[in-house]
Structure formats: structure tokens, C-alpha cells
Specification:
This protein is α/β, with parallel strands linked by helices. The protein contains 17 helices and 18 strands. Strand 7, helix 5 and strand 8 form a beta-alpha-beta unit. The longest helix has 21 residues.
Length: 474
């Protein structure tokens, strides 16, 4: 009885402090709603915070055993903090984005693999925010399949979560809170009927099961790729057991061809800077394509297009290099806006060409910001048929498993050159940072025996990949 009275008191309190609003609102999942639940205001009301904490504790933590609690950022973090203190449970904190410094962790706190974690959330509409949190917790080896929430809007979120193996307990459903507000003369019966009719008519879209690209094998990701070059590159990597991209930054075409004769069988991708070759000729291109076919690797021209769309389409297809005729894929900045992708998409035969979009750089003190990176990924989503993947340094840059993460700046030992290029180890870029294809240049090109060094890199990188998809990252 006490809990029933407290639930009724909480519903009325939430209305009185304007945490439950009626009007016309847009939810995170893109659904227009006549009612909105804004829990952010409760941090200004200690009595309400305490009541919520007590009710959630009785609902989910009093009898059930969990090692940790974790609030969905950011609204649920204060509630999770109070619950952790009340239940004497360790709290974990999930970041929405990784730090660009320090440990770069997504999950903060002390835990060990196999620990169980109860997720705390305020409101569920589609369940997408909980699924994002589940994905990050599971990536760290935690068991996360239970959540406790304040309000279930009854718009398929509970069903979506259950379909993904996550089960929730809620203090209220929307129908229950509406009834309390009507009984206490806070809203009219007609308003309640209008909201319930809306809830019955408008459901959140089904949440797609979370697919972690980091632990998905290349063969599976090839099936999910939209761009044919991405499909082909995934397949080559799986077939050759190589995720090594060689950057042939040499100025002599003869030296490049001689090098590829020695190491071509060990690489999946060859990256060129065609405009630094001093003796460029059509014959060089012909021989390069023949080597690519013989050794089964693809060619990436690292052109880093960065002009207006019309100019880029000419740079891609015209001039002395005629890049579009021989390069399987190219790199491009997103700085000019999506006109550059539209131009490349129109200029390319997307049946056998593609773009790596530059989302991050490996040089120290580069000017790319997290907002720029996020905008780049969103831009790519408009042209999935043209995108092979992203040049980036962070596994959180994108989630789509059909795209490829190309990461430069790799040597067997961490270092930094005199021009600010930062080199990371194979273990760091693949296991920690999520690289799919790793670019190595001087570590092989400048070696006394490029072939021997290529084999070392190939084997080291592949072992890291195999360890990653096994999920055994200890």
C-alpha cells in the first residue's frame, strides 16, 4: 500500500514540477507526441529525487543481485548515483563519446569481465538509448540484459528491448500515470483519452539488433556492405588473411613496381600518391593494374579531394593522371560539404569504385574536431553506395559494419617523427582503436628487406584481428 501511495505521490509531483508536459513534442526517436516526460528538472527537487530512488530500489535492487549500476547518459546519471549509494553498489559511467586524451574509455569505473550491470533509464520510447548503453557495456565484457526505468511510454520500446535480449522493469506505464493524473484532477479525462488513442496509433520503429562491427568477421561484414569495393576488400582480406595496406610513397615508378613485386602477395590494399611520381606514365598505370590483378590487391589513390564538386569531378576523371580509370578507391575530405560526395558519386562508376572519407587524421595537433568527425559520418550516410569507409583513428567514429575503418600511422613500436606524424602499434590500432585496414609506409618501404618486414606486419596485424573477433582481449 505504501508503494502505491508513493507512486501516486510521485506522479502528481512530476506533474507539479513540470516534468510531465502536455502539448506537442518531438521525441528522440522522431515521433511527435502530445505528452513529454522531462526528467532533467528533478535535480532541482531533492524530495522527488529521493522518492524516485526509493521506489526504484524497491522495484529492482532490493532483492535482485547486480555488481554495478549504470545510468544512461545523461539524464539518468543522478538517479544511478543515488541508487548506487543506497544499494551500496558500484556505479559505472558510460560516456556518450570517448575522450580524445588519457585512457579514452567509454565506460568509467572499476569492474571485471563477467560482472553484471543494471541499467538505469528515465523514459523508454523505442529503447534505442538503452541498446546503445548495452552495446558499450558488452564491449567491455560486462553482462547487461536488465534495465529499470521510471516510465514506459508503451510505444513498443519494451518489446524492442526484449527482442534484443534486454528486459525492463518500470515504475509506471503511460496509461498508469495518466490514470493517476485524472484521478487527482491534474488533467481532464478527455486529455487522457486523446493521449491513449495516440499511444495506440503511433508506435516506435523496431530497433535493429545491435551489431558490433568490432567483433564481426570480415566475411560477415562483406555481406552487409553496400559499396562493391568495400565488399571486395573485405573478401580479399578474408581470403589473403591480410589487413595490411602498403603506402608506396616513392617518387620512382620503377621503385614502386619493384617493391610491389616483392610484397604484393602480403597486402590487401596499395595506397598511392600519384602526383609525387617523377616519371609517371600510362605504362606505369598498366603495370600497376596488372600487379593488382596478379596479387589480388586493390588500389587506393590517396588524393584527399577537397574542392568544390565540379572541380573534384574534373580532378577525378581528367588531367594527366585520369585517376578514375585505374584507382579502385580514393580519399576525400568532407570540408566542402556533401557536394563533393555528390560529384564523386556522379563521376564514379559505383559498380567498381568507391570513396574513403577522411574523418580523422593521425598527425599531431590536426584541426579536426569531434563535431567535424560526426558531421562527416552523417554526410556519408547520404551516399552509402559510394562509401567504402572512413579514414579514422577511433572505433567509435562510426557503427555501420558495412563500412571499413582505414587507419594510418602504424609502426611496430609507438613513435613520432619530426613532422608530427604519430605512430601507434598494431595492437593499439586494431584492439583498442578498431582499425579494419592498417596503413604502413616507411616501416616497410624503408626497411632493408621490405618483404621480410611486410610478412612481419601482415602476421602481427592479422593476429590482432583474430584476437579482436574472438572477443578475448585480455
Amino acid at each position: 500500500m505504501a508503494n502505491k501511495q508513493n507512486l501516486e505521490k510521485l506522479a502528481v509531483d512530476l506533474f507539479n514540477i513540470n516534468a510531465v508536459k502536455f502539448g506537442e513534442f518531438m521525441t528522440k526517436s522522431g515521433i511527435k507526441s502530445p505528452v513529454y516526460f522531462d526528467l532533467r528538472v528533478i535535480v532541482s527537487y531533492p524530495e522527488v529525487m529521493e522518492l524516485i530512488t526509493d521506489l526504484l530500489y524497491d522495484l529492482a535492487l532490493k532483492d535482485d543481485q547486480y555488481d554495478h549500476v549504470c545510468g544512461v547518459p545523461y539524464t539518468a546519471l543522478p538517479i544511478a548515483t543515488l541508487l548506487g549509494v543506497k544499494a551500496r553498489k558500484s556505479m559505472l559511467m558510460r560516456r556518450k563519446e570517448a575522450k580524445a586524451y588519457g585512457t579514452k574509455k567509454m565506460i568509467e569505473g572499476h569492474f571485471k569481465k563477467g560482472d553484471s550491470c543494471l541499467i538505469i533509464e528515465d523514459v523508454v520510447t523505442s529503447g534505442s538509448s538503452i541498446l546503445e548503453t548495452v552495446s558499450d557495456l558488452k564491449r567491455e565484457g560486462l553482462v547487461a540484459n536488465q534495465a529499470v526505468i521510471i516510465l514506459d511510454r508503451e510505444q513498443n520500446g519494451k518489446q524492442n528491448l526484449a527482442a534484443n535480449g534486454v528486459y525492463i522493469k518500470s515504475l509506471f506505464t503511460m496509461s498508469e500515470i495518466l490514470k493517476i493524473l485524472v484521478d487527482n484532477q491534474k488533467i481532464t479525462k478527455q486529455m487522457s483519452i486523446d493521449v491513449i488513442n495516440y499511444l495506440n496509433d503511433v508506435k516506435a520503429p523496431a530497433s535493429v539488433p545491435v551489431v558490433d562491427r568490432i567483433i564481426l568477421p570480415y566475411e560477415k561484414r562483406a555481406e552487409l556492405a553496400v559499396n562493391p569495393v568495400a565488399k571486395q576488400l573485405f573478401t580479399i582480406m578474408a581470403t589473403k588473411k591480410s589487413n595490411l595496406c602498403l603506402s608506396v610513397d616513392l617518387t620512382s615508378s620503377i621503385d614502386i613496381l619493384d617493391l610491389l613485386e616483392k610484397v604484393g602477395e602480403h597486402v590487401c590494399l596499395v595506397k598511392t600518391h600519384i602526383d609525387i611520381i617523377e616519371d609517371f606514365s600510362d605504362n606505369f598505370v598498366t603495370q600497376l593494374k596488372q600487379l593488382a590483378q596478379r596479387f589480388n590487391f586493390l588500389i587506393l589513390e590517396d588524393r584527399k579531394f577537397a574542392d568544390i564538386g565540379h572541380t573534384v569531378s574534373l580532378q577525378y576523371s581528367k588531367g594527366i593522371y585520369k585517376i578514375g580509370e585505374w584507382a579502385d578507391c580514393v580519399t576525400s575530405h568532407s570540408l566542402p560539404g556533401d557536394g563533393i560526395l555528390k560529384a564523386l558519386n556522379n563521376a564514379m562508376d559505383c559498380a567498381n569504385r568507391g570513396v574513403f572519407l577522411l574523418a580523422e587524421m593521425s598527425s599531431a595537433d590536426n584541426l579536426i574536431t569531434p563535431d567535424y568527425t560526426e558531421a562527416t559520418v552523417k554526410m556519408a550516410a547520404k551516399y552509402p553506395e559510394a562509401i567504402v569507409g572512413f579514414v579514422c583513428q577511433n572505433k567509435k567514429t562510426f557503427n555501420e559494419p558495412g563500412f571499413i575503418q582505414l587507419t594510418p600511422g602504424v609502426q611496430l613500436e609507438s613513435s613520432k617523427d619530426e613532422l608530427g606524424q604519430v605512430y601507434n602499434t598494431p595492437e593499439k590500432v586494431i584492439l583498442e582503436n578498431g582499425a579494419d585496414v592498417v596503413v604502413v609506409g616507411r616501416g616497410i618501404v624503408a626497411a632493408k628487406s621490405p618483404e621480410t618486414q611486410a610478412v612481419i606486419y601482415k602476421d602481427t596485424l592479422w593476429k590482432c584481428y583474430m584476437k579482436r573477433i574472438s572477443g578475448k582481449l585480455e
